[in-house]
Design goal:
The complex is a heterodimer.
Chain A: H1 2-7, H2 11-15, H3 20-24, H4 33-60, H5 69-73, H6 78-100, H7 103-109, H8 112-123, H9 131-148, H10 157-166
Helix pairs in contact in A: 4-6, 4-8, 7-9, 8-9
Chain B: H1 2-31, H2 34-41, H3 43-51, H4 54-76, H5 79-101, H6 108-124
Classes of the chains: A mainly alpha, B mainly alpha.
């Protein structure tokens, strides 16, 4: 509910807020619910897509270098086809997220996919998850928590320049 | 000698994927907020602007190099070393590259996040 509280601030109040964090979260830099959905899309599409590709390629079986055309036939496998579709979805949502957030925000914020993969391995594939892996999950979750507390986009000269170039009507007089 | 090949592959993967991430991020910042642009000008404008951006094309090329380096690396070394080592090192190099080339404000919070996630990825492969 943290971001909802910030969202409630009027833009002009948020812009001059004494807390720099609130100033950074104001206006266009604010992470809205729709943007969180895009980040969730990056996480889910990457981890589920990878799992499906892995399962599909195991069903297809080993492909030798002497029979490379078999790789093309592998896309007929439903798991491989769905995996490729999801990875295309990953790329589209990753590009969308990078259009309004910093690289150093998007990468840690979407690393929950590693956690999701481990949970799928534990509860769906019934693999054993060691204590070290659980500690790894805690570390990644802590990292995600750290980065999502801050602003998604810090000052970016290239973006400011791009906005001026593409959105002349939005410029202040 | 085989270990040297493996670590060389890891170095190339990290370098190429960091370059790719930085170029893609720069490209998308030049394109601007995709959601707003889509609402204003439509999907084709978004696609044309992304696909015509030289940084985007170079970024995809760098990602392709990273992918094939991973394949070469996997033929020389263990996946349990190459995958987590390259993934976790990429988190840290991305933070350095984003600060240097994209001028992002990488504060303590973001450094902590990059290091924690990198450490977590290593432990997941343990």
């Amino acid at each position: 509910m943290r971001f909802l509280g910030v969202r409630a601030l009027a833009p002009e109040v948020a812009h001059h807020h004494p807390n720099k964090r609130f100033r950074n979260l104001s206006g266009k830099n604010r992470v809205t619910f729709r943007k969180y959905l895009v980040l969730a899309g990056v996480t889910l599409c990457a981890s589920i897509g990878d799992s499906l590709l892995s399962r599909g390629m195991k069903q297809v079986g080993g492909i030798s270098l002497n029979h490379l055309p078999d790789v093309i036939l592998a896309v007929v496998n439903p798991s491989v086809a769905l995996g490729i579709l999801l990875l295309l979805g990953f790329f589209a949502s990753y590009m969308t997220a990078l259009s309004w957030a910093d690289l150093t925000y998007v990468l840690p914020a979407t690393s929950l996919g590693y956690v999701l993969l481990t949970l799928i391995a534990k509860f769906y594939l019934h693999e054993s998850v060691t204590t070290w892996r659980w500690i790894g999950i805690v570390l990644i979750s802590a990292g995600v928590g750290f980065v999502t507390q801050g602003p998604a986009l810090t000052h970016h000269p290239a973006k400011a320049q791009a906005n001026q170039e593409y959105e002349p009507a939005r410029r202040e007089p | 000698m085989k270990q040297a090949y493996t670590w060389s592959a890891i170095a190339v993967i990290v370098l190429a994927s960091t370059t790719g991430d930085v170029l893609l991020s720069r490209a998308m910042k030049q394109v601007g907020d995709v959601g707003a642009l889509w609402r204003r000008s439509g999907l084709w404008t978004v696609l044309a602007r992304v696909l015509r951006n030289p940084n985007f094309l170079l970024g995809v090329l760098a990602m392709t190099v990273a992918f094939y380096s991973l394949l070469f690396g996997l033929s020389w070394g263990d996946v349990s070393l190459i995958a987590p080592a390259s993934a976790s090192l990429t988190f840290v190099t991305n933070a350095i590259a984003a600060k240097m080339f994209l001028h992002e404000r990488v504060d303590h919070r973001r450094w902590m996040a990059a290091v924690l996630v990198a450490g977590g990825v290593v432990l997941l492969a343990a």
